[in-house]
Structure formats: structure tokens, C-alpha cells
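Figure 2 data, in text form.
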Amino acid sequence: MKHSDGAGKTSSGRVNRRSFLAAAGTGTAVALAGCSGGGGDTVRIGGIYLISGLAQALGTSSENAARAAVDDINENGGINGNDVEITIRDHGSQPAQTIRSLVQEDNSDLLIGITSSGVGLATAPTIESLGVPFIATDIGTPYITEFDTEAYGDYYESDDGKAALKPNIFRSTANTSHMTYGIAKFIADNYGAMRVANMGPDYAYGEQCWEYFKAYSEGLGVDHEYVASEFPSLGASDMTPQINSVLSNDPDLVFTSFWAGDSTTFMSQAAEQGLFDEVEDVFDTIGADPTVFSALGDTTPEGIHLSGWYWPTAYDNEYNQAFLDKYESMYADENVPSIPGFTGGQTWGAVQTYKQVIESVGSLNSDDIISELEGFTFEEDPRGPVTYDADSHQAQAPVTLGTTSFDVDVPYDGAGLADIQKYTITRDESLELLDGSGLGPGM
């Protein structure tokens, strides 16, 4: 049992939800008549994604999945008889201001996003101050769902802090800790100790992926030799110097954490430099995306291992099929692959989760929604039943890892994923494997 102190924090270090909302004085703590009995009130969702620049394809995929979910909900009677409206904005140069505007100007009752770990951490205090339920669908950093400040330090009070959970923030996708565990586990089971090099984007996500991969490998008892680590700048147009540096160290395996446009750049230039012929395997944390494969076309290297938070053919259930059918019906004629990207399943799931939670509590009261989300299981998620942990607010969802192949049936010219494996891990298992690393599970 957790006991609350005078500051509204539990003995585990987690901020008490009700104390927080009372202090925040949120303006969404009044039930809407339409949501408690049906009527003319509109449920408003605000989304913030990178829908321009480097990650445009990724953010657009999330936007498409969110709009498909809203359309599906409205076609099936809305939420308690009320229509749902969604407003999605680009991060822009001031994402905190954009988020504030979604709530204070657009009157968003609920929020979804964000497309960057760094932006997620930077804007979390703003999201907390607004008091509106927020489900993160696209960010990987484990810090945002790590609640144990006593063990890992408060991210916002110390440069060494790694626990950054805010009481109204949840996450519908697996995080970096989970993703890197899956890769470390696969390598441990199939390769054993190897000479491993790293390449990743030069910011929080890339750095954390490498640290967690090494920590999990050590926890699994695999004594890799780490021979090189390179971090090209985010959005770099030329990665050949870093690729050549990695090659010069003669690795057996290359671990990478590129995504979106960076995945395309890396794989294209690595192929030109002969990297895929020189190493036994290459792994990427979230490079498995239709937009990446479509951009690479027939130049995609076959037989390397790419992960994703979601891959359309990895889940054989009626809810995933319903999502895929809806997505294709809306976007078959658009200039995007007619299957969702690796953020699709959890973005659709987040919006549909809001529907069930609001109908369960019968109002748009933020306190009630947050309370219901803690420990809530969404049975109709495309990835199978997903539970939001009551303490960490992290969705307990699987991650996928597959091999690139041109034998996969995909609605674009390019490769897809074959031989897909799914990995799950509990907080207790993660704590044991990460023991001594100073890294929190975030789950």
C-alpha cells in the first residue's frame, strides 16, 4: 500500500493524482452534460506531431491513424452520443506554446502526441500544468514513464535525474527500455558475445538507446566487445564519415537507433559503403516503417533486423483488421502507403482508449479520466489487450522485431518485415536486468 505525504507524493515517489489536480485547479473538472447522458456537447482531442521537416512522414502517419480513429468513433455513435473533433498541429519552434494553445484556445479536453523524446521531456511540465489527460503515442524515452524518483532522481530537479513521470501523462507505446531489451535478448539467444558497434542520432533518443542496449546485454550475461560508437547529427545528409569509422573497427554486429528520414539515409549510404556485406547483422530500434521501405525501394538490404512499436501484419485479430480496413479506406488514394506506420497501432489505440474510458466514467472530468486510465485495460487494441500500469502509466504492450524481406506482400514497391517476433517484459524483470546500471525501466 502506498501512503501519501503532505506534498501529495506517495512513498514510491509518484505524485498523487488527486492532490495534483486539486492544486492545479484544472478547468476540465466539470462533467459535460452530453457525456453523462448524451446530447450536443463535442469531445475535443488535441494532437501535436512533427508533420513537417525530417520526421514529416512519421508525424503524418500518426495524424492519419488518429483521424481514422476519430472517424471510426463518429461513425459508430461518437462518445456517449457526442461527436468527436480532433485538431492536430505541428510541433513548430515552440511546442510548449502549441500544446498550451490546443487546450486554452482550441478547448481540447484530451491530448495525444509527441514525435520526439527531447520535446516530450521538455514539454511535460507544461502538460502537467494544464491538467488535461495526455497519452504519448510516439516518444521512446523511458524517463517519461519512470516514477521512482528516490531510486533514479527527479529529471526536473537534477542533471542526473532519470525519472520524469507527470501525473496526467500516459504512454500507449512501448518505450526505449523495452525496445532495446528485445534486440539485446534476440542477440543473446542467436549470436552470443560479439564485436558490436553503434550508430544513432545525436540527441537523447540515440544516446539512451545505446545505454539501455549495453545495460540489458550485461544483465543478460552477454559480454560484448564494444568497438565503436558514432552519433551523426539528427537529419544529417551525409553519414559516410561515421559509417567508415564503424567499418574501420571491424564489428560483427551494428546496433542503430535511426528512424524516419535518418533510417533511409543510413541504410542507403551504408549499402553504398558495403557495410551490409561486411557485418553479420544490423539492428535498428524503430526503423521498421512502410515510409522507410518505400523510400528505399529495391535498395533495402535483406535479412537485417528492424524493430517497430507496431507492424501491420504482426497481429492477427479482429481489432487490428478493423484498423487496417479503416486506414486503407481513408488513405488508399493518398500519397502515403495505404498501411499504417509503426506509430499507427498505438495512436489508433490511444484515441479508442479515450472513448472507452470516458464512457466508463460518464464525463470529461480530468481527475476521473486519469483515475480510470491508471490500471485500465483496453481489450480492443490492434496489438491485443493493453494495460496502462497504475504507477508508471506505461502501456504494457509488445514490441516487434523482424527481418527485412522482399517476399512480404506490401502495398508499395519495397521490402517489408518477415519472421516477426514479439517481445514483452515486466518491470520486475527489467529491474533485475538493469540492476547496477542506474537506468530505470520506465514501465
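Caption note: Confidence is low (pLDDT under 50) at residues 1-39.
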